Amino acid sequence: MMANWLRLFTLSLQLALLLLVFLSPRRVVAVGLPKPPVKFSVGVEGIVFCKRCKFPGYNRDMDASPIPGAIATLRCYNGRRAVSLKARTDNNGYFLIQTSSLTTFTSNKCRVFVKPSPTTSYCNILVYPRSPGASLKFEKVLKLPFGLEGLYTAGVFVFAPSVPTCPSHP
């Protein structure tokens, strides 16, 4: 008799637990599609001037004019692996190098080098920065239509003419 009572008690306890599980309100969590990975790129900008020459875009405070067509090269190292990317300056001396191939590089392993424009070959002595190659300085993160871009600046590059006077036009 005691065994029947124990069996009945066990069955009723199991039934009560099942009812509790199935009849209690449940939390339903909606799981959406996973977000696609964010695409990330790097942009490096700078500007190139020729000191003492008064050409279009001349800046009186700097006593310098922008150098159009100068070649900026971004070089990044990661152990034995290296990447070089180039861009030309526009009419305002501005350059922008954009890439998504630098995901394994750190900014402190990158430098920007500038060669003056072939059309302004007389302005070919680097005055600033004093050492070849400028380090990158973080500016901001930009939201672009295709993802995010970390924008860095290499700053200003200033060249001086190798001759005492500048030509009348570039």
Automatic annotation (TrEMBL):
Signal peptide location = 1-30
Which keywords belong to this entry? Answer: Signal
**What is a single cellular component term in the Gene Ontology annotation?**
cell periphery
* Protein name as annotated: Pistil-specific extensin-like protein
Native species: Ananas comosus
Lineage, opening ranks: Eukaryota, Viridiplantae, Streptophyta, Embryophyta, Tracheophyta
